[in-house]
UniProtKB/TrEMBL annotation, chains A, B:
DNA-binding region(s), residue ranges: 21-60
UniProt record, GO biological process: negative regulation of DNA-templated transcription; response to redox state
Key words of the record: Cytoplasm, DNA-binding, NAD, Repressor, Transcription, Transcription regulation
Subunit-structure text: Homodimer.
Binding-site residues, NAD(+): G95, V96, G97, N98, L99, G100
Any single GO CC term annotated in Swiss-Prot or TrEMBL for this entry: cytoplasm
Pfam entry (one): Put_DNA-bind_N
Protein name in UniProt: Redox-sensing transcriptional repressor Rex
DNA sequence: CCGACTTTGTGCATCGGTTCACAAAGGGCT
DNA sequence: AGCCCTTTGTGAACCGATGCACAAAGTCGG
């Protein structure tokens, strides 16, 4: 009934997926001392269309000024709050092999709101090592570590064969957000969010389009 | 005119993105000696709904048998062909740091149709090293290496600041498929496909839902 | 204080994708 | 051969997302 209902509490999934993109562009602008930005410019920086950007932002409220644009700092704050980045999140990486190590050493990981709070592996060779200043703990300690460190997001970087079992265990201790790098479809209760990153799938999609470009009737060999 | 037109040559993007998932499930089944599979079972293995799976497959042609299901081997072949995996693709990894190294050492990368054909970096410390059996070449050689090895897909794993420049150079020598790990929006001509993998965005999306679960009265649902 | 100009926020048409539900197709049993 | 059972392939309704186009809102110069 009240006509001014700033936060809808029903932000479309597609919008949520783009907010981090806007946030990144805004951080860049803030660093370069830009105080105010139009939807046109911000959209360009984020690689989207300006109508889409305005609609996305309208889901969080009316934070722009007509004729002027958006206040960069204020918008950074609003988006950060909406995404839950005003608190910090303890992340555990399970499986400290090639990939897990790269992730652990990655600085940008930690940058905004996220903190690698634990590394866990099953290999006795690896357990006890210090990587990126963190001690690698044994998989037997998985539940204890998660509870002790207040981990709420788990990154799975184990071999595919171990992923479901580890997943079941972390779900059992109450973790409801998982980022999965193993090439398997995880089975979880629907209270749990799983996002997957699958390199192989990305390459296959590229290959599909590449093949089509090469084979199609129109050879689009454009020089820019 | 001819009523049986098996391949539509206009496969929806959403379908393309799921074909690799089906392919993986099918490979698993083939290995376990399963000859035939119903849409119901294959859908379950791939984590999708069976109507969606059937519609997806119908875009490639009528490869099922009513009352029976799909022949596993045959479907593997058809999907592989559609995705362009019957040829092999030479991939170059540019930026051999934490992430680039992990990718280079990753076996599953090579497994189906893809071959890491070159590693390129700018750091004199790294150039000349042998990683995963490959010599790391200097960034000055980028264009020459791409041409010499017939690279058609480039994986960008440089720092964000270098990504656009490397991107411009590979596009200039004719590469039209790029997998980008750097957290920047690449600007490319629209003949070029860019797919991005962005860990930080994935975590932020998880954080958004995690926050909502904790704070809101209604438990949010997930999508894998 | 006003009027011209800029830019937001959104209603609406459209589009692509998902899901349901069922007729058509094929296999196998008797 | 004929019938029943299973499962595909798809028409059609539905749903969320996109993009256009513009009225509303606000700024700024005079
Ligand atoms: N490396 C890549 O570039 C890459 C790319 C895409 C996907 N992946 C996937 O990511 C995962 C990890 O890849 P990787 O290259 O780091 O593999 P890896 O073999 O180097 O590392 C796996 C690590 O997991 C540990 N592990 C095994 N079983 C475990 C368990 N039950 N609990 C905890 N830890 C366990 C191993 O000891 C090892 O340290 C794999 O599923 C792989 O398919 C990797
Ligand atoms: N490591 C991760 O887990 C991770 C996760 C997400 C995203 N990323 C992104 O992936 C990229 C690589 O990350 P990283 O951790 O491997 O960084 P890194 O610093 O370890 O490696 C970057 C490598 O690129 C090389 N390089 C720099 N400029 C170059 C140029 N102009 N041409 C060729 N090579 C060049 C450097 O010499 C270095 O070897 C970064 O953009 C990072 O933001 C990394």
């Amino acid at each position: 009934m009240s006509p001014s209902q700033p936060r809808d509490r029903g932000i479309p999934e597609a919008t949520v997926a783009r907010l981090p993109l806007y946030l990144r562009a805004l951080h860049g602008m803030a660093e370069r001392g830009i105080a105010t930005v139009s939807s046109e410019d911000l959209a360009a920086a984020a690689g989207v269309n300006s109508a889409k950007l305005r609609k996305d932002l309208s889901h969080l409220g009316s934070y722009g000024t007509r004729g002027v644009g958006y206040d960069v700092e204020y918008l950074v704050y609003q988006i950060s709050r909406e995404l839950g980045l005003t608190q910090d999140w303890a992340v555990a990486i399970v499986g400290v092999g090639n990939l897990g190590r790269a992730l652990a050493n990655y600085g940008g990981f930690v940058s905004r709101g996220f903190r690698v709070a634990a590394l866990v592996d099953a290999d006795p060779e690896v357990v006890g090592d210090t990587i990126a200043g963190l001690n690698v703990e044994h998989i037997d300690e998985l539940e204890a570590v998660i509870k002790r460190r207040g981990v709420s997001i788990v990154v799975l970087a184990t071999p595919a064969a171990a992923a479901q079992e580890v997943c079941d265990r972390v779900v059992a201790v109450g973790v409801t957000s998982i980022l999965n790098f193993a090439p398997v479809v995880l089975s979880v209760p629907d209270t749990v969010d799983v996002r997957k990153v699958d390199l192989s799938i990305e390459l296959q999609i590229l290959a599909f389009h590449e093949q089509r470009k090469a084979g199609g009737p129109l050879m689009a060999v454009d020089s820019q």
